[in-house]
Design a protein that fits this description.
Shape: rod-shaped
Distance between the termini: 13 Å
Mean pLDDT: 97
Number of domains: 1
Number of strands: 0
Radius of gyration: 18 Å
Strand content: under 5%
Helix content: over 70%
Largest sheet: none
Structural class: mainly alpha
Order of helices and strands: HH
Length: 79
């Protein structure tokens, strides 16, 4: 297994572990916004929730790219 393949696999592992954490943070912020005592805190927590959704989307996109790169790297190493 090449060093590039190992690095790609490690990056994929990190991203796969982080996606659920982004979802969990989003849910915490969303739940907190629901009972926030003031409009300002509600807006803040809603904003934070949306940011976590963006993080998850970005991680999903990066994951797809890395998975393609890994498949290509494995194909090259077999050649």
């Amino acid at each position: 297994m090449s060093e590039q393949t190992k690095q790609l696999e490690r990056l994929i592992e990190v991203i796969v572990r982080m996606i659920p954490k982004e979802r969990q943070a989003r849910d915490v912020y969303r739940d907190t916004a629901a009972w926030a005592p003031t409009e300002m805190t509600r807006i803040l927590f809603e904003h934070l929730s949306l940011e976590e959704e963006k993080h998850e989307s970005k991680l999903q996109a990066v994951l797809k790219i890395l998975q393609k790169e890994l498949a290509e790297a494995k194909k090259k190493s077999k050649s």
